[in-house]
Amino acid sequence: MRAIVCHEPFRLGLINRDEPVAGPGEVLIRIRRVGLCGTDYHIFSGRHPFLNYPRVMGHELAGEVAALGPGTSLRLGQLVTINPYLACGACIACRKGKPNACVNIKVLGVHVDGGMCDMLVVPESAVIDAEGLTVDQAAMVEFLAIGAHAATRAPAAGVERMLVVGAGPIGIATALFGRLRGFEVSLVDRRQARLDFARDRLGLDGVPADDRLEFVLDRHTQGDMFDLVVDATGSLPAMRRSLGLVAHGGALVLVGVAPGDLTFEDPEFHKREAMLIASRNALSSDFARVIAAIKSGDIPTDQLQTQSVDADELPTSMPNLIANADSVLKAVAHF
User: In the predicted model, is pLDDT for residue 325 greater than 80?
Assistant: First the structure.
């Protein structure tokens, strides 16, 4: 079968490997679509903090059940998506109902090989029914679940204004689910094309992240700033700057991840009595909420997918997708 391997930063290759076999409690999935996201781009460019090479990337997955191992109960041919966060089930986080933060987590396409291949074996517990969605929609469930999770990390009480810093796929997903929570949502990004896309296609207001950002947002909020700020940039300087956009008594949620140390001015943090919250991965309940929102039409997936790529073209098309990031929101590879 085909597999797309990132051998080292900036080097993708198309290889052949043996087709896997489903064991007890496992399911063989015929991969049909793989969504490309910032994690994959960071792996390609050598910027992911939790990864060793070589690696088969791909964690935004849609496919069909091709074979069942002993003890499984799914239906052959069933359209599914995958929860790529394989948790141990025994650590302190798992015992507290937070498998997304599992101490021993193995994320498909990051810690272990993922779904940029023709066939993939996963535990049945990772398989999510996607019947009622299109195959392209099923490939977008995972990144939307990241945003859905981030949008609910802070309590809703007292939140009127929400600011999302970073208008990439995760930022857009967070903004959409923040709006569904009833918040007045604004976006910040240094790329005007991303803000134009969010405004014209999704009805989300945005502000350019230039030198006047704090002044503009101060005037926009009559000096109050934002009850909830979610940073989805994966940029340490942006994360540091985001604290200054949080209202007194507000919360800052960090959904982006970057290698290195993050520091704040303690007086700025302390005088706000701000909450600092991390948001990692997503829970099964987030996947269910996303699927329901797609089916109801609350999430306009037809506006989110901007590119389609044939799997065989990925080794050459990945650099182009990164270079043209201003016009790429969600690219989906076809297998």
Answer: no
Residue 212 is assigned to a structural domain of this protein: yes
pLDDT at 67: 97
Residues 188 and 206: beta-carbon distance below 8 Å: yes
**Contacts made by residues 182-186, CB under 8 angstroms, sequence distance 24+:** 182/156, 183/156, 183/159, 183/228, 184/160, 186/161, 186/162, 186/217, 186/220, 186/226
- Tell me the residue length of the chain: 335
pTM of the model: 0.94
Whether 295 is covered by a domain: the verdict is: no
If asked whether residues 135 and 181 sit together in one domain, one would say no
Whichever domain contains 111, its CATH number is: 3.90.180.10
Please answer whether residues 245 and 258 qualify as being in contact, where contact means their C-beta atoms are separated by less than 8 angstroms. no
Residue 134 and residue 153 share a domain:
no
Asked, for residue 86, whether it belongs to a domain, the answer is yes
Give the pairing type, strands 161-165 and 184-189. Answer: parallel
Grouping H, G, I as helix, E, B as strand and the rest as coil, residue 153 is: coil
E-only strand ranges, the chain: 2-8, 11-16, 26-36, 55-56, 60-68, 79-82, 85-86, 106-107, 119-123, 127-129, 161-165, 184-189, 205-208, 226-231, 246-254, 275-278, 305-310, 330-334
For residues 6 and 133, membership in a common domain is answered with: yes
3-state secondary structure of 217: helix
Cα separation, 316 vs 156, whole angstroms = 44
Torsion of CA 162, 166, 172, 178, to 10 degrees: -20
Per-residue model confidence as pLDDT tens digits over 208-221: 999 999 999 999 99
| Overall average pLDDT of the 2-26 stretch | 95
First-residue to last-residue Cα distance in the chain: 11
- Domain enclosing residue 256, as ranges: 146-278
> For the chain, what is the domain count?
2
Neighbours of 263 (CB within 10 A): 9
* 291 part of a folded domain: no
**pLDDT single digits (tens) 55-69:** 999 999 999 999 999
